[in-house]
Each structure stands twice: as C-alpha cells, then as structure tokens.
C-alpha cells in the first residue's frame, strides 16, 4: 500500500487524467439524478454482489429529450419527475400556476413560480420549451417518411487469450459443457431508431455477447438477441401505443416495475412518478415485455393502460417443468445454450389512474402465466418464492400533495394472499431544506411479478425504514445525509438465520467558483451474514466503512482535472481488511476531438475490501469496475466528430497486477498478470 501510494504521488504531476463530461453523461445540471448519484447507485449495486443494471434506457430518454425538447405544458409527471427531477411539490405548483395564470411564456416567469429557483430553471432549460403548445397538424404521409434516423454500431473484445476460447476436439468439448465458449471473443451491438414529427417512433436492437456464435452453430441468423418496437405518442384520446418490446412501471414499482430506477439518493425524488409505458430501447435481455400495450384517456383526469405480452425466457428444464430461470442473457457455452428460450410466459394486465392537480390515485391488476410450471426451489432461503404456473398481483397507489409536504404509497397483494406496502413522505420545509421518510414492509411470502421476471427477488423478506435530509448551504455547498435500518424476517442467500442491518451515508459537496469543486463522502453499512470461523455461531455482523474525497477543477473552458481518493475498511470482530485507491483524471476538447485519460492505483487486502469505480464509457454503455488486489488501471477514451452526421468513439482499458500471475477464473481466466479490453463505436444521425 505505501509503495503504491508513494509511486502514484511521485508521478502525479505528469499523469493528468481524463474524464470528459459529454452532454449524454448524468451530470448535476442534466436533471433527474446528478452524475454522482447515478455513479454511487451503480457502485452500490456492484458492491452488493448483484449485476450492474443497464442504465442505457434512461440515457436514451435524456438524449432524446435534449434533441427534441418537450413543451412545458405538454410534459407529464413521468417526464417532469422521472427525467427532469422536479419534485411532487414543484410539479403541483407548476400545475396550479398554469391553471390560474395560463401558459408560462419565459424562463424568467418559471423562476417566479413557487418552488422554482434560477438553478432549477437552468437545469431543465435544455429539455423544455415555453409558450403556447403548437397545434397538432393532420397526419400526412410525406411527414411520416421525412423523420430523423440514428444508427449505432459497437465492437469490443478482450485482447488477451482466455481459457474459454481454447480450441479442443468436440469429444473434449462435450465433457466440459460449461467451460468452453461456442463463438469468438468479439462483442457486437447494433441499434437503429427512427423518429418523425407525428409522434411515431420505431427502432430495433441486435446484440452478440463475447463468446456467442455469429452466423453459425446456435445462431444461424447472426446476432444472438433481437429487439424491436413501433411507438405512437399523442395528446388526444389515445396517449400512447407500443407494438413490439416495451417496459412498464406504475406506482412505486411494487407490483409492476422494470428498468433502471436509481432511488433514495435524493429526498426530493424518492417518490418519483413512474414512467408508465415506454418502448424498450436498451440491450437488456430480460426486463421487458413483448407484445402490445395501449394508454388512452378515459375522462379528462383519468387514463388507462392495457397490455398483452407473450415471450420466451431462459430456464433450466426438468421433464415437463423448469427448475430455475436465467436472466443473464448469455448463450456462450453448451449449458447456457440449453437454457435459451426454454420457457414461455404470457402476461396481461391493466392500470387505471386519476391525475389531479394535488392528488394522484392509481390501481392495477396484472397476471403472469407460465407455459410450464416452475418447480419449488430446494434452497431453504427460497422456500417462499413463487412456484407453479400462474401468478397475479394487484395494487393501489397514491400521491397526495399537502402544500410543502407530499405523501405517497403503494399497497400490493399477490395471489397467495400476502400483502406488501411501500410508502413515505417528503417535506420541503424551505427551498434550502428537504426531508424524506421511506417505509417498506415486504413480507417473506410476498410474490411480485417483477421479481420473477428479472430474478432479483428484492421485493420480499425485508422491513426497512429510511430517513433522508438535504440541505443547501448557500450557493456553494450541499449536505446530504441518510440513515436506514433493515430487518430480514427470513433466511437470505449466505445468511442461514433471520438478520438485520443498517446503513449511514454522509455527503458534502461544493460547486466550482474558480477554486475547484470538492466532494466528501462517507458510507457505513452493517449487515449480518454466515459466520465462517466459529461453528457454534450462525451469523455475525460485518461492517463496511467507505470514504471518498474528490476534487475537480476546470482551469480553462475545455479542460477538466479530477483527483480522487477512495478507501474501504471491511470486517467484524477481530478480522479486518482494508483497501485504498488513488485516481487522477483529465479531460480536454480540441476542435472536433475530445480526449479522456485516466489512471488509478489500488491496493486491497481482500476481495471483500474491493473498491468500485464508475467510469465514463462510450455512449449508451455503463461501466462499473471492481479493483481488488494490488495494481493499476488505465483507460483512454477518444471521441471524434467526423462530420455533422458521423461520430466515432474508441476506448482502451488495461489492468496491470503486481500480486498475481493470472486474471479471472474459469472460462474467463487469462494466464497473464494483465487484462486489456478495446471498444470501438460509430454513431450516425441523419
């Protein structure tokens, strides 16, 4: 640790690192969630051992909104709250102002609305227009074919040879169905979208993961995954129609919710309005429906959403039933290919909502039916999870604005008679002070359709209370604090007894006023797990202390420097392990080329003390890296705008380890102390 830190500090004057802030990044001024909030949420997903969610659907929506701003008076709650980050109180005051005074004509007029400040108006200005909404013209064929298109092609691979790509005889390959890949190490992604002024959108996604075959063997048609949609959006009686692949999210996503939704990072957005119905534009292979969905207005303040879906899913078959589901989307080895599209599921449901100026009330009923029953799991901790052939959920949710206080909640029930509740309150005492409370009561036997579809099973067996506070310290500083307590009434994975946990997060940041911007972050998390040393002990608490100090400085308009230190301390009783990482980044933009370079030096005692870093990737990609052991990580990202329609990105990353002779394990093992990955991407917009 000392040697690595000394070398990093010694060479830091000549290693200025890079992270260019593109307009597609999740920045503080981009609304919805600041970049730090999304980064922290993704890092916590990875730290908990889960798969990092695909955030490209959210990024697609932000980029689309920036390219085609919506009129402020036509934007719904899903856009104002879910994308632009306006709180329920701000949305209520905006609706009230428009009802009393008519259309908001200028940004200065919006800043005079209660709950809005100049910083809030500046944040949402790139995404909205003001004044009277334009009248919709009759649909004409020439406008349908004169829309705008965009196409994206991405290629990437690991440069070092991995064990899974060894060439062996078929007889040996049959003896190792889970350790040898069928295809090449190349990863491919193709995305196309079309948008016209009549509210009609269309697009498709095709993807091949590394290790999957391409135009041969199990994929004779080329790509392993295909997805497409056609969408209509209007403001008349028919609000939205989607045919193809789509996502749904209603209420607090307790009975129906899909896609990446970073929550509880900001007390003002903890009760964000769900986005309802939207087309599935990401490459996630499990969190979507396939069929048709319709949203239409029933009366002036009421609308309904109906959907019907039938799709295949990956599963492990056993005679006339399947034992488990797979949501990774990988079809590389013989064992993974055997799971591909083995299960077939039918889904249907409806959601009815009444939107008022101060109160929102919704109710929904959803059905999931499997073509073959799911067998009960033989794991004790999974005893109460869904098994059988069909599952239904029903729920009712509300959001009620009482001046400076907003109450929200959702009550849901499953087919086995179990009921779950999520609710809370947000209080905006002043513009500079905001509180929130979130209560989750999810019984061990509550069976949610989203859990079955994405395999997360995080909507059951937890009782939690969370308190959040945000305080603006003048115009230059923000203080965030949140505390949570969780209780798990039943067993969990690697926890063979009921357990509990708690967490604390403190964050202070300043804005850049010439001397740079500072961020100080401290997180403490305590969770009980199986005891490894003492056979008489069932579970024991483990603590994780994590801290971060970051300094960003923009000396000139097109240059940005970032220095960051991260530290972790993990353990319990008498056993502790620690880790540290020092990273430096620099970004610059020269004419049509933007450069991003980064260097990180890390040293950890164990995998449990690993450090997670969310770093910039090519557009529409999410990257959260894990750093454990002793070594360095380098990456460079170049963005080149070739013309008004064409742009290209290239990213090269490299791990260099000093404490091992091989990287990875199993099929991904590299018999060298380094790992290098390259990624190229081309984007065309016409």
Structural class: mainly beta
Query: Whole-number radius of gyration?
Result: 25 Å
Q: What is the beta-strand fraction?
A: over 45%
Q: Give the biggest sheet.
A: 24 strands, antiparallel, barrel
Instruction: Give the number of DSSP strands.
Output: 30
The 3D shape can be described as globular
Task: Give the low-pLDDT segments.
Answer: 1-34
Total helical segments: 11
- Distance between the first and last residues' Cα: 51 Å
Mean residue pLDDT: 83
Helix percent band:
10-25%
Question: How would you describe what is shown here?
Answer:
By secondary structure, the chain is mainly beta. The chain has a domain of 67 residues. The chain is built from 11 helices and 30 strands. The strands form 3 sheets. It has a 24-stranded antiparallel beta barrel. The longest helix has 14 residues. The N terminus is likely disordered.
